Amino acid sequence: MNFLEYITLALTSLRTNKVRSLLTMLGIIIGVASVILLVSIGSGLQAFITQQFASLGANTLFVLPGKVDLRSGGPATPVSKFEISDIYDILHESEYVRLAVPGVIQQATLTAKGNTASEQIAGIWEDYFKIASYEANYGDIIRQTDVERTRKVIVLGATAAKDLFGDTDPVGQTVTLGDVRYIVKGVLVAKGGGGGLGSDIDQRAFIPYTTALRQFNLTRPYAIFIQTTDAKTVAQAAEDVKRILLKRLKPDDFTVLQQTELLNTITQFLSVITVALGGIAAISLLVGGIGIMNIMLVSVTERTREIGLRKAVGGTSQDILIQFLIEAIILSLVGGLLGIAIGSLGAYAMHSFIQTQVTAWSVGLAAGFSTLIGVIFGVAPAIRAAKLDPIEALRYE
Amino acid sequence: MTDLLRLSGISKAYEMDGVTFQALDNVSLSIQKGEFVAIMGPSGSGKSTLMHIVGCLDRPTSGHVIIEDRDISTASDRELAAIRNTHIGFVFQQFNLLRKTSALTNVELPMVYANVAPKVRHDRAVAMLAEVGLSEKMNNYPSQLSGGQQQRVAIARALVTNPSIILADEPTGNLDSKSGKDIMAIFEHLHAAGGTIVLVTHDESVARHAKRIVRIADGKILSDSGKRKRI
Known about the structure:
A: alpha+beta, 2 domains, B: Rossmann fold, 6-stranded mixed beta sheet
C-alpha cells in the first residue's frame, strides 16, 4: 500500500464519523489557538516596548554612580563621585557625543492649591529636554539661563500637572517644594505609558540643575545624560565616556548604561514570559492529545471486526498500524491548522485593544507540536489495532 | 496432478487457563485444484481451527501446510498476509462487509492491499459485481442491501483477486433458504468454471452441494468421501 492510499483510507474513515472527528479535534484546536494567541500577545508586547524605546531615542546613554548590574541591581544608594567638569570633559573629548547634561534626581512632595503629590524631581540643563525628546505643551521648558541664574522655576510632566492643578492651566502658578515657592514655567507633552525605568515618565517635574543643588543641598551631579551623534555611534560613545571617566574614577564608581542594553534586558524578560505563556497553553494541547488517544482506543474497539477483515483479505499488521496512526495524525494536524487559523483570527481581532503579533515560530511550533501529539497519542491505539489476532477480531461481537 | 493444498500431520493445541486443549490431532488432508470440498463437524470438532489454518490465519503447532508447493507452516505474519491476499478468498457467515463503504469499495478492498492501481481496481470490482448480479447496487451501502445481496458482495470480494482457494465458513448460515440457494448456486457455478472451494458447514443440505465431504470430530478426520479419488 502506498502512502496516498493510507491517507485516503484515513480520510474516508474520519469522514464517516464527522461529529466525532470534529469533537476530537476540538481539544487540539483550542490548545493550538491558545498557544498562538498567548504567544502573539507576548510578542506584541515585546514589539510595543521596542517601539517605545525607539521613540525615547536609541542614541542616548546614562551614566549612573556605582556598579549597576541590570540583572542583579546595584547598591541601594550609590554615592556619586561625578564632578561637573566630567560633563565638559565628555563633551570636549568624544567626537561621538553631541549633548551631555548633569542631573540630580530626588523624590519630593509638591504642593499647589492645597493639592499635594509626591513626584520625582530632576535638576537638569536645557539640553536634557532634547536628549529625552520632551517638548512643552504649555509654556516653556527649562532654559540654560534659568540654570545660570538659579531661577526657582519648575516644568511639570503631564501627569504631575494634572495631579496638582487638575484641568486648569498651571503656567504662571505657584508650586511649593519643601518651603520654597517655584513658578510653573511649562507643562510637557504627555509621552504616555510606563517609562523604561519603571516610573511614569509623565509623573516628573524638572527644575534647573543649579536650583536643584541648592534645594536638595547637593554638590555633585548624580547622573549624566548623554546624546550621541547618532544611533550607530552609541557603543563608541559609551567607550569614550568610560575612558574619559576612568582617568579620574575607578571602574566601580560609575556605570554607563545604554538604552539598548536596558531594552535587551526587558525583551529578554518578556521572551521568558512569552515562552511561559506558550508553555501553559501547550498543556491544553497535551489534554487534546489525550482526547485523541481516548477516541482512537474507542475506535479500535468499535472497529475490531473491520481490523480482522482487513487482515483476512491481506492487510499486514504494519498496514493496520499505519492506518490508525495516520488517522490520529490527521486529526491532530487538521486540528492544529484550524487552531492556527482561529488563533490568528483571535490575535487579529484583539489588535485594536492590545498589540499582537503572530510569529512564525509559534505557528511552526504549534503545527509541529500538534503533529507530534498525534504520533505520540496515536501510537498506543494503533499498536493495539495492529496486534489484534485476526481470528479473534473476526469473531468479535 | 499435484495437490493445490496439502496438510500433513497437522496438530493444533491451545492452552487455556493452564489446560491444554487439542483442537486438531494429526490431521492430513490433500485438496486438488478444482475440487469442491465440504468440511463438516459439530461445533468444537476442530473444523474452524482447520479452516483458519487452511486460510493462513493461524499456524499449526506441528505439521506442515503446503499451498501450491509452498510450506507456510513457518511463514512470517507478513508472508501469511501476502498469501491470504493472493491465494485465499474468504466468505464468512457474518458477511463482514465494511458498513460505511459502498459495495464497490468493499470489493476493491483486497486489491488495495495487493497494490493494484486505483483504475484497474475499480474496473475489476465493477466486473466482479456484475458477475454476481449486483451491477445495479454497486454504490449501495451494506445496510441498503439484503442479506443475500450482502453475501454476494462478499463473494465478489473473495473472488476479485482471483485466489487459488475460496474458503467459505457457513456462508448460508445467516440467510433465508431462498437466498441460501442463490448463494449455493453461485458456488456451483464457480466450481463448474474450475474454481477450488472449501466449504465449512454443519448443514447436511448445504454440504450436499459439494463433491467431496470430509467429516471431522474431536480434532480428527472421521471420514473423507474423496479419499484417493481423483477428479
